[in-house]
Amino acid sequence: MHTVTTVNVNGLRAAARKGFGSWLAGTGADVVCLQEVRAEPGQLDDGLRRPEGWHAYWAPAAAKGRAGVALLTRSEPERLRIGFGEPEFDDSGRYLEADLPGLTVASLYLPSGEAGTERQAEKERFMAAFLPYLAGLRKRAADDGREVLICGDWNIAHQPADLKNWRANQRNAGFLPEERAWLSRVFGEEGGYTDVVRALHPDTAGPYSWWSYRGRAFDNDTGWRIDYHVATPQLAGRCVKAYVERAATHAERWSDHAPVTAVYGP
């Protein structure tokens, strides 16, 4: 059995001040994928940079204070890769991949975008380059007898069941028709991957993983499901449990996202 958790920490140092360290000390996960770390390793104290019981790997963004992804693994990886071979994004702190025995696991922070702006154009360029990489990674892994798991903040809600107010968000980044169509390609024949949580919860609204800090979004569960476990089908079929670690109260949150955890059988 392997347990994998993904969470956008919305600034690791800020999350640490609010309780991330206690959560990490108590998790039973074998792998933790972090996004939006925002800090370089040298800016973190030892407890965050080298947490006890973990091998920690970092891919900070060249732009200071932005993005940044990390992987925490109980066992030492056989190989690490930063970026996916697209020069524009290789130092953007958005993709970190590791090979563990029989498994390639990655932490992804896909650009959030903003409809009608250069930020959305950047997101579209990322998606255009990333899908062929995903397809190739799946094929290479199959040749090597490996499974693939891409965890992270994909910044797209795929279907109306993945966000509370879907009708009002059809022209907003994160639920644009072209973004949703791209994710359908990831989950279709072209990409060949499976949305692990949706496969286990096919008829559920959510479970949401992000709630705005504005208003009473968390208290009213007005959320979005944008944090995914995206796996090769055989690995997805071995998932026995997948859930969102939603805080009990608004005050107990240490990020605007909640950890998404999945347990994979042998």
Write the layout of secondary structure elements.
Elements: E1 2-8, H1 12-18, H2 20-26, E2 31-35, H3 46-49, E3 55-59, E4 69-73, E5 79-82, E6 95-100, E7 103-109, H4 118-143, E8 147-153, H5 177-186, E9 194-195, H6 196-200, E10 227-231, H7 233-237, E11 239-244, E12 260-264
Parallel strand pairs: 1-2, 7-8
Antiparallel strand pairs: 1-12, 2-4, 3-4, 5-6, 6-7, 8-10, 9-10, 11-12
Give the biggest sheet: 6 strands, mixed
CATH homologous superfamily grouping: Endonuclease/exonuclease/phosphatase
N-to-C CA distance? 5 Å
CATH architecture: 4-Layer Sandwich
Content of β-strand: 15-25%
- Rg of Cα set: 17 Å
Q: Which consecutive residue ranges, at least 5 long each, have pLDDT under 50?
A: none
The dominant shape is globular
Number of helices: 7
According to DSSP, the number of beta strands is: 12
Which structural class fits the helix and strand makeup? alpha+beta
Task: Note the run of SSEs as H and E.
Answer: EHHEHEEEEEHEHEHEHEE
What does this protein structure show overall?
This protein has 266 residues and is of the alpha+beta class. It has helices at 12-18, 20-26, 46-49, 118-143, 177-186, 196-200, 233-237, and strands spanning 2-8, 31-35, 55-59, 69-73, 79-82, 95-100, 103-109, 147-153, 194-195, 227-231, 239-244, 260-264. It has one domain (2-264): Deoxyribonuclease I, Chain A (4-Layer Sandwich). It is built from seven helices and twelve strands. It has a six-stranded mixed β-sheet with strand order 3-4-2-1-12-11. A six-stranded mixed β-sheet has the order 5-6-7-8-10-9. It starts with a strand and ends with a strand. The relative contact order is 0.16. The mean pLDDT is 96. The record marks 155 as: Transition state stabilizer. GO terms for molecular function: double-stranded DNA 3'-5' DNA exonuclease activity; metal ion binding. The active site is at 109, 153 (proton donor/acceptor), 257 (proton acceptor).
